[in-house]
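Progress report, Aim 2. The chain analyzed during this reporting quarter is listed below.
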Amino acid sequence: MSTSSAVPVRTRRVASRLRDLRRRSGLSAPEVSQALGISMSKISRMESGHRGLNTDDVAALLGLYRVPSREREEVLTLVRNGASPNWWTMPSGSLEKYWDDFRSFEAEATTLRSYETMLIPGLLQTPGYVIAIAHALAPHGIEDDLDKLLAQRTARQTQLHSERTFEFLIEQSVLEREAGTAETMHRQLERVSAVASRPNVSVQIVPHSAGAHVGLDGPFLYLEFAEHADLVLGEAIGCASYIEEKQIVAERREALGMLRKIALPPDESLRLIDRKSDEWRRRS
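Predicted structure tokens for the chain:
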């Protein structure tokens, strides 16, 4: 849990996007400082989210980086609405672009805590499982984005090799819901079991016997940061939400604690995962 003062989620996203855009442009911070007459310390604060963002300053940076007009307006809109709490975003263009913001927050977090009710968490998914889910969610056309989606999943999963902390709370029904083939599910659960053995990863299964519980509100991702306040991410149809209101964040943190208590301990969870994996193997 972070005790840092809250920086609005839009400001945090613009800050990380400015850093990414500068790197994409090939310019170093000293070169930007010299070109625009902005101090190095100011550039650092703007890119880290530790200062309020001024529309004119951001516009100058975007102009220097030769950002296309559509993306430029998206960023400036975030700056103008920077003080507003929470943020809902909808896809505009490709699936790859839709997840840019999500991946940015995920990559900056020091601890990721996930509760899933319908799917294996993305950081644990195998390529076969990704393909099966993608076709189920978009039966009339996903091929154009499929390679990008697989590459994105692979890139995200390298995070598991870091020293950051990952906690996954997964409903038992997820282990039993066939996605693709029985062989796909066998390999998927083998993957979950293997990742669960990492010292920085915790996997707990919420069993059917838990009955009705606080998780009925739906899945969510709880992110903790070293220098910013905690953030709750959720998904609905065609929409991603980034929640920063203290009361809601506190409620989700409490929900995680309650789910942790009713879930099977990690060792029992691993035995259940392995047992379900064997069942899928026998069916394949």
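Residues 18 and 47 are 6 Å apart (CA to CA). The longest helix spans residues 266-283. These observations will guide the mutagenesis work planned for the next reporting period.
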